[in-house]
């Protein structure tokens, strides 16, 4: 199979990112043979290797689109400090892309930087918008809620918040709706106290 035909078949998958196993099935090749073909397409700049076993179609790889593909089949969206920065609520530009997911908490190194994934319970998952670029990003309220909720972890990673500027249309009632979904009374109290302290 030549490179043109291989790339056409991969393009028919209809997704910007895929795993080597997906390509093997689409190309009718073994995983090792598919890996060789994908490396050849990457040298031709038709694909980009994101990390071991994962590829991006074309050159335009947006780090903010990666979280949802890194956690497939579980969903995720950009949140926490990354979303606050995107919404202009903090001046700090995080060096890491932060995301919330139903997948386990982990840090993943990719060709365009590190993605820090943070697990959240299913009843607290949601509250994101899909940008024109395809990036799924938490609303201003949900990004702040996620940060307050997750700041109680053992690592204390999000305990300190940079100076915060709320957007003109910030909905405090939306924060209360998310807090009401927390099952643990202790977590609910701690999250509420953090939000009161920050706001």
Question: Would you write up a description of this structure?
Answer:
The strands form 3 sheets. The protein has a 4-stranded mixed sheet with strand order 4-5-7-6. It has a 3-stranded antiparallel sheet with strand order 1-3-2. The chain has 199 residues and is of the alpha+beta class. The chain has 8 helices and 9 strands.
Entry summary:
It contains eight helices and nine strands. It has 199 residues and is of the alpha+beta class.
Layout of strands and helices, then pairs:
Blueprint: H1 3-11, E1 17-19, H2 20-27, H3 31-43, E2 47-51, E3 54-57, H4 66-70, E4 76-78, H5 80-86, E5 97-101, E6 106-110, E7 113-119, E8 128-130, E9 136-138, H6 140-150, H7 172-179, H8 185-198
Parallel strand pairs: 5-7
Antiparallel strand pairs: 1-3, 2-3, 4-5, 6-7, 8-9
Helix pairs in contact: 2-3, 5-6, 6-7, 6-8
């Amino acid at each position: 199979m030549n490179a043109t035909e291989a790339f056409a078949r991969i393009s028919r998958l209809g997704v910007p990112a895929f795993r080597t196993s997906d390509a093997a099935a689409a190309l009718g090749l073994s995983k090792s043979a598919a890996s060789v073909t994908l490396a050849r397409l990457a040298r031709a700049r038709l694909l980009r290797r994101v990390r071991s076993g994962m590829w991006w179609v074309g050159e335009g790889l947006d780090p903010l689109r990666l979280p949802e593909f890194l956690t497939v089949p579980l969903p995720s969206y950009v949140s926490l400090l990354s979303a606050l920065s995107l919404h202009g609520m903090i001046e700090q530009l995080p060096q890491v892309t932060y995301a919330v997911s139903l997948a386990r908490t982990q840090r993943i190194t990719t060709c365009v930087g590190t993605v820090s994934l943070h697990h959240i319970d299913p009843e607290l998952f949601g509250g994101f918008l899909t940008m024109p670029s395809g990036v799924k990003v938490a609303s201003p309220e949900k990004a702040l809620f996620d940060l307050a909720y997750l700041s109680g972890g053992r690592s204390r990673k999000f305990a300190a918040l940079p100076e915060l500027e709320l957007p003109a249309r910030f909905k405090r009632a939306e924060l209360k709706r998310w807090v009401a979904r927390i099952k643990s009374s202790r977590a609910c109290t701690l999250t509420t106290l953090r939000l009161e302290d920050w706001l």
